[in-house]
Amino acid sequence: MGERERDKGGPRNDDYMFVEKVEKMIDRIAGHKGVEGVIVCDKDGAAIQTTMDNTNTVMYAEGVRNMANIGLSMIRDVDPTNDLTFIRIGTKKLEMMAHLNPEYVAIVVQSRIKTSKN
To answer: What region holds the Roadblock/LAMTOR2 domain (predicted)?
Structure first.
């Protein structure tokens, strides 16, 4: 693909490599016991890939984004040179973990309720 095609917004090789990397990460994480969903968002908060339905994807992505903004504000009040890279929120039923990267946010929703197998 030439520079001319790239300037017109055509797909770049880097884009394909990123999507492949994201898919491998989702498959690996989703296979863990208790994982209910994995969401990967771009830096603007739009879901790139998800294993959840649209309603839950939007709800968790917006919620984690809001909590991350609050956490970042708190961190920067203490040390303006520091940055928030990981956030973990636990409830009685669920645990949400998010890795915050300048390019993407990876969110994992995991069940805290242990199921017994009979």
So the answer is: 22-110
